[in-house]
Please model this.
Amino acid sequence: MLARHLDNDSPQLLGSDVFGRPMKAAAELPASRRQFLKASAAGAGLVIGFTLAGGNKLAALAAAAEGGFAPNAFVRVAPDGTVTVLIKHIEFGQGTFTGLATLVAEEMDADWAQVRAEHAPADASLYNNLHWGPVQGTGGSSSIANSYEQLRRAGAAARALLVQAAAEAWGVPAGEITVAKGVLSHDGSGRRSGFGAFVQAAARLETPVEVALKPAADFTLIGKEAPRLDSRAKSRGEALYTLDKSLPGMLTALIARPPVFGATLVSFDDSAARAVKGVTDVVAVPQGVAVLGRGFWAAKQGRDALQITWDESTGETRGSDQIMAEYKRLAEKPGDIARQDGDAETALAGAAKVLEADYEFPFLAHAPMEPLDCVVQLGEGVADIWAGSQIPTVDQGAAAALLGLEPQQVRIHTMFAGGSFGRRATPNADMVSEAVNVAKAIGGRAPVKLVWTREDDIQGGRYRPMYFHRLRAGLDEQGRLVAWQHRIVGQSIVRDTPFAGMIQNGIDPTSVEGANTLPYHVPNITVDLHTTDVGVPVLWWRSVGSTHTAYSTEVFIDELAEAAGKDPVDFRLELLGEHPRHAGVLKLAAEKAGWDEAPAAGRTRGIAVHESFHTFVAEAAEISLAEDGSFKVEKVVCAVDCGLAVNPDQVKAQMEGGIAYGLGAVLHNALTLDGGRVEQSNFHDYQPLRMNEMPEVEVHIMPSDEPPTGVGEPGVPPIGAAVANAVYKATGRRIRRLPFDLHDFSAA
Amino acid sequence: MVKLLINGAERELDVAEDTPLLWALRDELGLTGTKFGCGMSLCGACTVHVDGVATRSCVTAVGDVAGSDVTTIEAVSGKAAEAVQTAWEKLDVVQCGYCQSGQVMSAVALLSENPKPSDQDIDAAMSGNVCRCGTYVRIRAAIHEAAKLMEA
Ligand code: FES
Ligand code: FES
Model:
């Protein structure tokens, strides 16, 4: 192993932050701090002491070393008045740098121009997701929601200390000092100053236990569209992602993985691979065979030249059609009950009209713009990892276990990530584990950058599962909905993972969410689930269960509205009496889309509403159908109720992006298997939505005083159903098998 | 040895002629603003200008651009570039940002050729640039905004 000691740690080894600014390393901390780190690494008891008691000190000491002030783990104020907010969630597009920094800046009364953001280190004792318990991580559209109070308190505490320091320096009562736009003022004495002048004095004060938070009426930043903190860097190619990380002597690694999921390595011939100029190593790792070289191109050519024999007998060799056929057979029988109100079976038997529909959903890849990657550098008793780490606690734990280290000895440097959509939140920390295994396999001789190609990404598994849905519903003589039966068949996302505790009574909530929470008032409802065994690794995909449940329920309710002879909006509203927030966004979207007026000639509209992650979204899609059967989604009107919108412009951006992401998938995407082999490989056969297909999007935010909820995912679920309902209006065909590309509308 | 003119400077690289320009830029020259998204000319993340023309560097061999003027996001400049980057910031176009170097390079090439593009022109010039975050609405608006800025 590479002998590297903390005392030899140099700033260059840490390099720069995600904006390319130089980072201060442990070497610049006071000597006592370095010894403390060493001591911590040596014994578990001290490690606990470090994480529980020393965490705030870490930030405080780092700030003190620069002459600044860190009242808590989330805020640092530098002598030049710059306020840096430590962001415990990963910034991968959803705007968390901007949103979380807004919360702190609001309560500090900072000027937005003085605010900076950077990723917090991995330390679950300080930076855990308050919705997840003792785990640091990003997901479930929870970043703003779980941080809303925590970060405002952090900002308020910082403000209180600066005010107290100013009061002491000026010899005036703290209560007479006001703060606005980063300036402390005392009217009586005419004194004014920025934050910077008081950081040293403030650093010596005790953190106040109680701080008052502002009433919403006093907000100057929350709700006011602060510009994104990362716009400039990202418009100029300056933002740093994992792929951009470079270390002296670093090697790039690509891994050849099995051709079918679950196959195992028998043998390989690396002679041709080793002959490629620049290739330095070929090593077997648990995930396959890794080729390392100087730069991506050498490693890629080396991997192409490998000859590998795999044993596929242990793998999943079924095709998608075969798997779906089995799902259909399973759907004939009742599954585990996820919701039961009344007696749906009896009510169906007595219904005047019964409708039944089956829906088929394919596997989907996430295909984030930046394929997976991870940089690892091993030292003595320490490992440094640079990654788009979505669940740092899991990544840290996985790396520590592989290396025989304590989690605290694994330092995670979270980089900007080029999207994730769930892909970087793997329960087994796949990209980190692979990179660590490769680094171990070469004895830690050099830092390693593991890179997945797009083909690796599309074919590498961790898909949104395939699902089969069967829905049956009954209407009485008056066209009232009296029974609803919803059966879902598919793989569990959390089974056999550290998140398996989410499964209750055989029900993985991620399989049924959005279905068992059907908001419509129906006296008799059954939702049941068959969890299947398929050897294809699966994962949460932007909006998780709602990716399929919103589609089937919202297309089916449209069908029922028609059978009842009612307008789709009116029919839904009649059933949403107990769900005013669903009804609110539905009405708002319908009104703004001009639902009551006929669309222009050649256009049709469809609408859908869905709640996910406590955010309510309705979308009305307007489409045009061409002679040749192709259709274009021309416009989407979206209404969202996410409680108080911390940054309305970013809420809009997430709705726009969610609509694009969901639309691309329902139009084009299916990840299919033939004999266990994935049939798609890159963006030519797994087509993303492109500019020419992007509809105009109009977003309306429901005014609200409720606490904020997330917006990263909830824009996705309604779009598919809204488009399907518009397509039905245009063609008379209900699309029950996705994607739309499977269907030919030219005869319509 | 391959001699290249990158961002106005002559660079000599010890790589095979068939090495993709993308990896020469990123791994040999440390110019990491140009991104890798597909390696097959399908996503536009790797877009650079070769003699002013938007070019996918992932499928461009260094040997083929030996006599040409290559510009990357790090050095793109001029009226169109300034307008595009100003408009991008003004409208907060970016999300994850990973596709945006390529988007900016394609947009600058478009506006340099056609300072007042229609929506159809934008579709034609920009559909090769994928954005998985779906920032297309804002990219379109920012290109129109940049066109306005260039007029002023
Ligand atoms: S990486 Fe070159 S077009 Fe995708
Ligand atoms: S901003 Fe994320 S891919 Fe375009």
Summary: Chain A touches chain B through 61 residues (CB under 8 Å). Confidence is low (pLDDT under 50) at residues 1-14, 24-55 of chain A. Chain A has three domains: 33-235, 242-313+372-451, 320-363+463-731.
